[in-house]
Please model this.
Amino acid sequence: MSAAVLRHRYQRLLAAYPSDWRAANGAVVLDTLLEAAGPTRRWPSPREAVALLVGGVRARAQQAAAGDPRWRWVDGLHIGAILLTVTGLSIVVNRTATLIAYGVTEWDTPLSLTLEVVPAVLLLLMALAVVRARVLLALIAAAVTVPVSVTIALMLDAYVAPGRLTGGLTGLVAETTVGALPLIMVLGVLVKAGGARRRSWAWLLLPVALGLADTFAHALRPAGTIIGSVTLVVMVAALVLAVATGEVRPAVALAVYGMPYLLMIVDGAVRFGTDGAWIGTLRSTPGALAVALAVAAWVAVRARRGSAPGGPAPGKGA
Amino acid sequence: MREPTYYILAALLDGPMHGYAIIKHAAKASGGRVNLAVGTLYGALDRLAGEGRVTVDREETVEGRTRRYYRLTDLGRQALLAEAARMHHAAGIVIRRLATPIAGLA
Model:
């Protein structure tokens, strides 16, 4: 029993290594770890855990230095697109859970509730398509989202509260387009690059967890601030990783994730001026970091394109 | 050459050896000073294989556990001997010096 538990814990640590390295060496390393651990150990020793984590980061760095930087960018863009779509889907989960748990409010009408189904279906379709690498389908869905959202907003505004839309039709179209633009652009690049690789369905647990947490975890408030702070820390870590090792995927993915924040700033500056009142810390910092991440990823790739890879190709010989 | 690398290569002088056997051999040969973590060992073997100093000899399954045996290449043997000669020379300088008292201090 303890061997199975220990095996499972070592397998988790081995996730630090790149997937192709694990495919080539994982079984041998795991069996060596279990042999070295002895029959009674239940937890990996701290020394072994640190060695595996360091080894994993090193193997990833070697792979990044040796591999084609182009597909790392494509992979990073794909993960970024997944983050954007699952974030959108988490709003749908949150809304659905709120309706089920707390019922409708005075603001909800039969028409508004009916119309809400359309973007919800589109967001679900986008998330499914992006995760399963159907990027053209996701692009079409993302493009359709803009006119659909504008139409629904206009219909609801006319029905519920006329004149509520600040900035009129132009402002509404601009805001909706700006919101959808990062995803549309990224999906366009992925389509042009020939697609992406299929990801696990497990990614869809993320929007479910985020949506339900936002609905029910009131005790954890300010959850938004915690998530925002964690995001900033992860972004800085991705920045360091890209520059130090050339592993640009987290930086590219988080740059994509941060782009809506950046575009919100630009959109706000264009429409309301630059008095700064509308720029909150949690809005502007991810935007600024998104630019830094994109630049760092580009610099890292440029730097390594000029230097020959020094280490062995991961997965070979060990 | 770093000490863990030296003892890994030295272990393989006895013939092809699997990962855990290398760890035990290195610990014993170094008097317990070089106690390799498994993650560190395979990182080093990865690097040494990339440099052509060791190569995979074979894989076997023993009692349900997969073992991969590594062996020393000619390049690895040369590098190990060169390092041993360098350390022997360096040690000789100190040992000879200690064996010869300095005039005036004795």
Remarks:
- The CA atoms of residues 268 and 274 of chain A lie 8 Å apart.
- Chain A touches chain B at residues 25, 27-29, 31-36, 47-48, 50-56, 58-59, 311-314, 316-318 (CB under 8 Å).
- The radius of gyration of chain A is 23 Å.
